Structure formats: structure tokens, C-alpha cells
UniProtKB/TrEMBL annotation, chain A:
GO biological process: transmembrane transport
Species for this entry: Actinomadura craniellae
Membrane association type: Multi-pass membrane protein
PROSITE patterns: ABC_TM1
Pfam families: BPD_transp_1, BPD_transp_1_N
Keyword Lyase among UniProt keywords: no
TM helices/strands, residue ranges: 9-30, 119-144, 156-179, 199-219, 256-278, 303-329
Cellular location(s): Cell membrane
Protein name: ABC transporter permease
Residue stretches making up the ABC transmembrane type-1 domain: 117-326
Keyword check for RNA-binding: no
Keyword entries, A-Z: Cell membrane, Membrane, Transmembrane, Transmembrane helix, Transport
CDD domains named among the record's database cross-references: TM_PBP2
CC annotations in GO: plasma membrane
Automatic annotation (TrEMBL), chain B:
Pfam families, A to Z: SBP_bac_5
Organism the protein comes from: Actinomadura craniellae
Protein name (Swiss-Prot/TrEMBL): ABC transporter substrate-binding protein
Residue intervals of the Solute-binding protein family domain: 107-498
Keywords of this entry: Signal
UniProt KW ATP-binding keyword: no
Length: 336, 587
């Protein structure tokens, strides 16, 4: 198992390098293909009607005229060995793993990422607990009560959940639940370590809204998986052996159903940990997704790459955990 | 002056709350006010102070969907940034803190009096008030203002703020204090003693006091306290508030009282709230939700509420009583590129055929703006209404097809021609304007191809790039402009002077480079009498329209909301939004 984990982690390093190279290429080569010059890129950092001299100074400071491979080399070197950045009056140290320095915000990218991770982590993990519990439970019950009013109602709601985008359900719930009926306090992130009660109450709405979307998907997946599994020969055998229905459902049917659910869960959770962009934007929460959005809107390459790499890392780690969990859920994996 | 770009979000549509906020009882609460108080009713804040009060205490909450361009007074250009920095930065001159037209006038701030010109407007001298201090209690010295101006020369470190000082001052090839730490080598400003600041200009410039008023770049910075590009995170305060910790870009920060600020030296600011909390990066509709719920007091960019809240405000009389609908200082005009359409008769045909009524409605009709006559908007001092050339600023005016066809014949294109019109694709109003132009010009055979681009790159890389305009054969596009300072120079020079045409971020997308106008720009800055200068500005305005290089469209109006818990609220025409330096809160 340890060799497996080490192999996966080494693979992850290669993957992250590829991701960073692709992000770099998209950031520089796509605009160039669309006719954007280095003057135009420099103008993004300048004020109104910049003079050629001002553009030249900006290009020199940010190295915008350097070939893309040179700029990428500098990035990788900083990642491995650290770097220093000139603020004009002093040199700022950026120790490895240095994700770069944002000239837009005058802050280290790693500091910004570290600052935003707890927000995204809180949103994603809270919502994940809700959607797993609700989605899998509803899916199992729907499968066991196939064709009943419960099943039809649950699947109808699930269809709505999958169909309605988060910015619609989010804004709707904010308008009514928070502002009109005042059933919940305004959405706000307070660190868990600072005030657990406020952390919980401030995130209920994003959790529920996000879980509504995902639970719907998981309920439909679980129902389909359960229905398929319940028709398997080994389930009939288990029942013929006289096992209780509860044991048949939980130990045999549900366990087999959970394997594909876990696979998707790993991807979903990894993606969300990389930034729940729409949720964070809708509820004005300052997580990684919002940081990524700001980075893209402001052409802040170091931030874009930093968040992209963090997101990729989360996906890799989440999938690694899922692979390890396979062994727990499915005995066939453990024994092979 | 720049305004923030509208942040493109994936979110669309919103359902807004139906809060029954009662109209504020308004008026003076009996414990202060300057006698210019107004009862809270629709548009009362445009001309008077609503909820005038001297009551101290409470937390003022400000928010925005995007962020400041910079919190460094030397590196901000946005109007709302210059308004906001007055809370913690004082400059040599500032705008007068009064409602109505008075707010566009200059008032001494750190200086005892307006700058005194000599040497034919090439030298401007300011004397500092005595007893001025920073937040740490150290005295403010003339050398700190010299250093503040010097640092704006390094466009690599501070590239976002105005570049007027670097253009106007006689400082040779000085590169700024980050490359040359010896301040004696900066000859553009002299400080013979601790309280005298003398600016030395290359050429005469009559509006230097106006420039010093508009820009935050004379806010003093002690050289020893400068942290370069990181200074924005915690500028040293000279104003009524100081930063508690660092400002976190895209997140926000907190301002608290500066106990070393002396109100006796500052007639333009109050220090009413105990704390001011700033939240950046809020969802746009959430900003409006919080404003209407009273949990946010100020939408910092000051450009008005979004479409959903706008409808709510205008249809609910109680909410409408707490709204203002002033002219925002912007003119949404349509530049016609004179290089791609060089024949003036062809340009005239476009102006003749323009359906002004449709454009007016595209911007929201009466609440959205006023039909423009001149290029300069009404808040510019000395601006004349102007004569309508080839168009009529009237509701219901659909253009003159016959005259347009005559002009087309005169330009040798009797059957019309084809060109491209660009607009900001994430701005519904601009899209509607482009579609209205397409329909109107099609009546005379002028075929427009419409192309939309994102706001974030439009003024820098598409319509603001002469090379791109040439390559894509762009004939016209949507555009908006507000003055750097409210005179004809502050408004017209960047958009009509041939010298102002630059390769990226070009503010003159018409590429109007008229010999007659260029000469007027060279001469006008030598005139001492403001009235004489105004005459020249109006001449330039006429020439721009007479040459059919600009289609006057709509003077923008914004719909601002003031929560009932906000005190001392009034529209400040100098900034084009509420004055932030004097606000208070109840409760």
C-alpha cells in the first residue's frame, strides 16, 4: 500500500507540472494568437492612457517581453528553490514552494491560497457530509420503494436539484430565507477556531444550497445502482440463505453500490476543494474559487496558476483517498 | 476619471427581497447640521444633505463587488478611490465637502491656500498649515509631499495612478526614488523649508490647482515609511481614520479613528463613525440586497444599483424616497474613428441617421440619463449646451434619413458603405445601443457589423488599441468618459488632443488628431483667466461635433440608494457619488 501511495504521489508531481505548463501556455499563447501584444498585457497593469515609456517600465518589471519558456522556467525554479521579489523599496523573500508573487495585490500567492483554503474547505466538507447523507439515503429508500409516491416525489425533486443552477437557488434562498423571512442569519464566514457557532450558522445556507444540487445527483445514482444490484444473483442467494433484509441491503447491496458513488465523490470533492466558484461568488465567500475568479478577471497569472495547481493537488489527493477507501468498501480490491 | 469595470460574473438573474423599509423621517436630528439639511425624499440627496447629524459612534459598513484599483493614494485613479482615500489621506488641495455645484470647487487641505502661480504658470507654490501630523504623531513635512510626487515617476511600481506630474514637471529623465534614492536629484519639486512646496513645470499650465485637487498623489509619504508596491496594504494616515492592520485586497479591511488628526485643520472631513468596515468582492446583487436591508451602508463604486434593485426602487414609493438620481458625470457618447472613416461627409451621414430616441431608451430613458448636446457633460464648469450638429437632442427624434442620404452622396457612397461597430458584450445597454445603431444606419444603406468584447479588455486592447481598430476596420463603438477634474481640460483633453493618442489603453478611440484643436490645446494652458479657457474648451467641443467625430448620446444618471441609518448623505458632484468623508450612522 505504501509503494502504491508513493507511486501516486510521484505521478501527482508530474501531473502538476503539466497543469502549470498548460496554464502558462493558455495565459500567454491564446491572447497572442488573438493579436494581444506585450504592450496590451502591460496596459492591463497601467493606468489610463499609458505612455510608451510607462509600458516599457512595466514590461521590464514583469518580464513580459521574455519568451514564455523563460518565464515558465522562472516559475518552476521559484517553486523548487524559492525566489525574491522587489517591491521598489525592499526585497521580499518567497521561500519554496513559492507559487509566485501577485503584483496586483502585492502579496505572496501562497499566503493568499493558505488564507482562502479554510473557507473553501468549510464549504466543501460541510456540503459533502449533507449531500452524501441525504443523497445516498434518499437513493436507497427510493430504490426500495420503487414506483411509490415517495420514489416519484424524491426523483422529481432530484431532477429539479440537478437542473437548477447554484446561482439561481443561491440567490433565491438568500432573497427569501435570509432577507425576507429572516429564517437564517446572513451568510458569513467566521473561522471555526474563532467561533464554532457562528461558523456553523454562517455557512448553513451555502451547505444546503450546494448539497441540494449534489444530493439530487447522488440520489439518482444510488437509486440506479441499488436497483441494478438488487437484481444480482448474489443478493438472491443472500436472501435464500436467510439473511435479514437489513443485512442484505446494508452489507451486500449498498456496499456494492457505493463503489461507483465513491469514485464520483472523490472527483466532486476534489473539484469543490479547488474552489466552489459559483457558490463562493453567489454567497460572497472569499474562498479559492473567488480568488481564481479575481485572478482571471485581473489577468493575475501568478494567482491563476497558484489556484490551478492547488485545485489539481486537491483532486489528486481526493482521488488517492478514494482509491484507498475502495479497499475498505470493496473486499475484492483489498484481496487483489 | 476612471470607473471600475463591471465584473463579469457567471451569475445571472436575481430575485430581490421585498423589504418594507419605511421612508426616513429625515431632517436634522437636532444636534448639528449646517443648515443645508433636506428631508428624505426622492432625489433629496442630489442637492441637499439628508439626515444631517453630528452624532458620533457606530460602525459604517462599505462594500463593493470588485475592489479598489489601489488603496495607495499615489496609485489610484478611480473616482471612488479618490473619494475613499480622503478618509485616511490628506492632500495639498481637495474638493469642497458641500452638496450641489459647490462640491466641484477646490479647497485647501494640507495647504493653507491654493497654489500661487508665478513665472507664467510654470511655478506653483504651496504653504502647509502648521501642526499637521501623521497617525504616529510625527509631523508632516514638505519633503514628504515631494517624495510622494517623486514615487509616481516609477510607473513599473506605481503604474495605475495618473501620470500628470511625470508629464508636466521639469524633472529631466528622473526615474523615481526606487531607482535613484537621492531625492535631491528630483528637480520637479523644491522644498526650501518644512512647510513650502514648490512645483516646477516644463511649460505653463493654468489648471495646476485643479490637478492637485483631483489627484491623491500629493498625500504625503515619509521616505522611511514607504514600502513600495506594498505601501497600498497600509498607507500611513494623515486623515481622520487609520488602517487597523493591513488592507486585504479582494477581501477588505477596517479603518479606526486616528487620534492624531486635528479637526481644526480640516474643514472638509468629519470623524463620525467609530469604525469603518470595508468588504470587497461581494456578489453584485448581494450588495444591493444588503443596502436595502440596511446591513450595508455604502456601495463604494457609487455607480448605482443593478437592474433588479433599480426596478424595485422605482416601483416602491417607500424605497424610492431613499434614492437619488443625479447626473453621474459620465457622457456615454459614440466615437467615430476618423482614420477608418476619413471622409467627414460619411461621418455626417452616420450622425444624421442616428436614432437618438432609441439610444436614449437603451440607456433607461429619463432615469438612465439626459440627452446630450455637447461632448462635455453638464457638471463641467463653464460648459455650454452647444449647437446640435447633424442631430437633435430630443426625445422622439429618430434621425434625418434624407439628410443622411445627401451626406452619403457627398461622400461618394450614395448606396452606403459597410463598417464595424464594437461594444462591451457584458453591458446590456451598450449591446442595445449597438443594435439600435445597426437598425438606424441600415435605413440609409450603411451596414454595421456588430462585435462585442469583454469590459475588462475593451478600452485597453480592442477599442483602446489603434492597431486593433485598424486591423478590424472598426468605424465606431460605444464609449463613456467622465472628467479627471470638472473643467473642459479635465474632460476633453484626453479624448481629443492628438498627443493623447497612445498604442494601448487609448482614451481617444476616434483618433481625432485635428490641427486646429491641437493648437488650441497647446495655447489654452497658458491662459490665466478661467472664463477665457472655458471659451476655448467650448470651441474644441464644437469642433469635435462639427467634424462628426463623436455622436453625442446620453449624460449618464445613476440611481443611488441611501439606507435610512446613514447620516450626512449628499451627492458630491466632484466625485460623482456620495461624499464618503462625512458620512455617519445612527445606532
Amino acid at each position: 500500500m505504501i509503494a502504491f501511495i508513493v507511486r501516486r504521489l510521484l505521478g501527482a508531481v508530474g501531473l502538476l507540472l503539466v497543469v502549470s505548463a498548460v496554464t502558462f501556455a493558455i495565459f500567454f499563447l491564446v491572447p497572442k494568437a488573438a493579436g494581444v501584444s506585450s504592450d496590451d498585457l502591460a496596459a492591463r497593469f497601467a493606468g489610463k492612457s499609458p505612455t510608451p515609456a510607462a509600458l516599457a517600465e512595466i514590461k521590464e518589471r514583469f518580464g513580459l517581453d521574455d519568451p514564455v519558456p523563460v518565464q515558465y522556467g522562472r516559475f518552476v525554479k521559484a517553486l523548487v528553490a524559492g525566489d525574491t521579489y522587489d517591491t521598489g523599496t525592499q526585497e521580499i523573500d518567497c521561500p519554496a514552494p513559492c507559487l509566485g508573487y501577485s503584483f496586483r495585490t502585492s502579496q505572496s500567492v501562497l499566503d493568499q491560497v493558505v488564507d482562502r483554503v479554510p473557507v473553501t474547505l468549510s464549504i466543501a466538507l460541510g456540503a459533502a457530509v449533507l449531500w452524501l447523507l441525504a443523497g445516498v439515503s434518499i437513493g436507497v429508500l427510493s430504490a426500495l420503494r420503487r414506483g411509490t409516491i415517495f420514489d416519484r416525489a424524491a426523483m422529481g425533486i432530484a431532477l429539479a436539484g440537478v437542473s437548477l443552477p447554484i446561482f439561481f437557488t443561491g440567490l433565491l434562498s438568500l432573497a427569501f430565507i435570509v432577507y425576507k423571512w429572516e429564517l437564517l442569519p446572513a451568510v458569513n464566514y467566521v473561522p471555526l477556531t474563532e467561533n464554532p457557532a457562528k461558523w456553523f450558522s454562517g455557512l448553513i445556507l451555502p451547505w444546503v444550497t450546494l448539497a441540494f444540487l449534489y444530493a439530487a445527483l447522488y440520489a439518482r445514482l444510488t437509486r440506479a445502482g441499488m436497483l441494478e444490484t438488487l437484481n444480482e444473483d448474489y443478493i438472491r442467494t443472500a436472501r435464500a440463505k436467510g439473511l435479514s433484509e437489513r443485512t442484505v441491503i446494508t452489507k451486500h447491496a449498498l456496499r456494492a453500490t457505493l463503489t461507483p458513488i465513491l469514485t464520483i465523490f472523490g472527483l466532486d470533492l476534489g473539484l469543490l476543494l479547488g474552489g466552489a466558484i459559483l457558490t463562493e461568488r453567489t454567497f460572497s465567500l472569499k474562498g479559492l474559487g473567488q480568488l481564481a475568479l479575481d485572478g482571471v478577471n485581473q489577468s493575475d497569472l501568478p494567482v491563476v496558476i497558484g489556484v490551478t495547481l492547488t485545485a489539481a493537488l486537491f483532486i489528486v489527493v481526493a482521488n488517492l483517498l478514494v482509491d484507498i477507501l475502495y479497499g475498505v468498501v470493496d473486499p475484492r480490491v483489498r484481496h487483489s | 476619471m476612471k470607473r471600475p469595470k463591471v465584473l463579469a460574473t457567471a451569475a445571472a438573474g436575481a430575485v430581490l427581497l421585498s423589504l418594507g423599509l419605511s421612508a426616513c423621517g429625515g431632517g436634522d436630528d437636532g444636534d448639528g447640521g449646517d443648515g443645508n439639511g433636506a428631508t428624505a425624499k426622492f432625489d433629496a440627496g442630489t442637492t441637499g444633505i439628508v439626515n444631517a447629524s453630528e452624532k458620533k459612534g457606530g460602525v459604517l459598513k462599505m462594500g463593493m463587488s470588485d475592489d479598489f484599483d489601489s488603496t495607495d493614494p499615489g496609485n489610484t485613479y478611480y473616482a471612488f478611490g479618490n473619494n475613499f482615500i480622503r478618509l485616511y489621506s490628506r492632500t495639498l488641495m481637495t474638493y469642497t465637502s458641500k452638496p450641489g455645484a459647490d462640491s466641484t470647487k477646490s479647497s485647501p487641505d494640507l495647504a493653507q491656500a491654493p497654489g500661487v502661480p508665478s513665472d507664467g504658470n510654470r511655478t506653483w507654490t504651496y504653504k502647509l498649515k502648521p501642526g499637521l501630523k501623521y497617525e504616529d504623531g510625527t509631523p508632516i513635512k514638505a519633503a514628504d509631499i515631494k517624495y510622494a510626487v517623486a514615487r509616481t515617476y516609477d510607473r513599473g511600481v506605481l503604474g495605475k495612478g495618473p501620470a500628470y506630474f511625470a508629464t508636466l514637471l521639469n524633472a529631466g529623465d528622473y526615474k523615481g526614488p526606487y531607482k535613484d534614492k537621492n531625492l535631491d536629484n528630483f528637480k520637479g519639486v523644491e522644498t526650501p523649508d518644512d512647510s513650502t512646496v514648490i512645483f516646477k513645470l516644463k511649460d505653463p499650465f493654468a489648471e495646476f490647482n485643479e490637478l492637485v485637487t483631483f489627484s491623491g498623489q500629493t498625500a504625503p509619504v515619509p521616505q522611511a515609511k514607504d514600502t513600495g508596491s506594498r505601501y497600498a496594504l497600509h498607507p500611513l494616515s494623515s486623515g481622520p481614520y487609520k488602517w487597523e492592520g493591513d488592507y486585504q485586497p479582494k477581501k477588505g479591511g477596517v479603518l479606526v479613528r486616528n487620534t492624531n488628526w486635528d479637526p481644526a485643520t480640516d474643514p472638509n472631513r468629519k470623524q463620525l463613525p467609530d469604525r469603518i468596515e470595508i468588504a470587497a468582492g461581494l456578489e453584485g446583487n448581494e450588495v444591493d440586497n444588503r443596502l436595502l436591508a440596511g446591513t450595508l451602508h455604502v456601495d463604494l463604486p457609487g455607480s448605482g444599483v443593478q437592474a433588479a434593485a433599480r426596478q424595485k426602487l422605482l416601483t416602491d414609493p417607500k424605497l424610492k424616497a431613499n434614492a437619488d438620481n443625479p447626473l453621474a458625470g459620465f457622457h456615454w457618447y459614440i466615437p467615430i474613428n476618423v482614420k477608418n472613416i476619413p471622409n467627414v461627409e460619411c461621418r455626417k451621414a452616420i450622425v444624421y441617421a442616428t436614432d437618438r430616441d432609441a439610444l436614449y431608451r437603451a440607456y433607461g430613458g429619463e432615469v438612465g440619463g439626459e440627452l446630450a448636446t455637447s461632448i462635455q457633460p453638464p457638471n463641467v464648469a463653464g460648459r455650454q449646451k452647444g449647437t446640435d450638429f447633424y442631430t437633435q437632442a430630443q426625445v422622439g427624434y429618430k434621425g434625418d434619413v434624407a439628410k443622411a442620404k445627401e451626406a452619403l452622396a457627398a461622400c461618394g457612397q450614395p448606396n452606403g458603405f459597410a463598417t464595424t461597430m464594437v461594444f462591451r458584450s457584458d453591458r446590456e445597454k451598450e449591446k442595445a445601443v449597438a443594435e439600435a445603431m445597426e437598425q438606424a444606419l441600415a435605413r440609409v444603406g450603411i451596414k454595421l457589423t456588430l462585435k462585442g468584447y469583454p469590459s475588462g479588455t475593451y478600452t485597453g486592447e480592442q477599442f483602446g488599441s489603434p492597431a486593433f481598430v485598424k486591423k478590424d476596420k472598426i468605424g465606431l463603438g460605444t464609449y463613456g468618459w467622465a472628467p479627471d477634474w470638472p473643467t473642459g481640460y479635465g474632460y476633453l483633453q484626453p479624448i481629443s488632443d492628438g498627443k493623447a493618442i497612445v498604442s494601448s489603453g487609448n482614451s481617444n478611440p476616434s483618433e481625432f488628431n485635428d490641427t486646429q484643436v491641437n493648437k488650441l490645446w497647446n495655447d489654452v494652458v497658458k491662459l490665466q483667466d478661467p472664463a477665457e479657457r472655458d471659451k476655448v474648451y467650448n470651441q474644441i467641443d464644437e469642433r469635435m461635433r462639427e467634424q462628426a467625430a463623436y455622436i453625442p448620446n446620453v449624460y449618464a444618471k445613476s440611481l443611488l440608494y441611501r439606507p435610512t441609518t446613514l447620516t450626512n448623505v449628499y451627492y458630491h458632484a466632484g466625485f460623482g457619488m456620495y461624499d464618503y468623508a462625512n458620512l455617519g450612522v445612527t445606532g
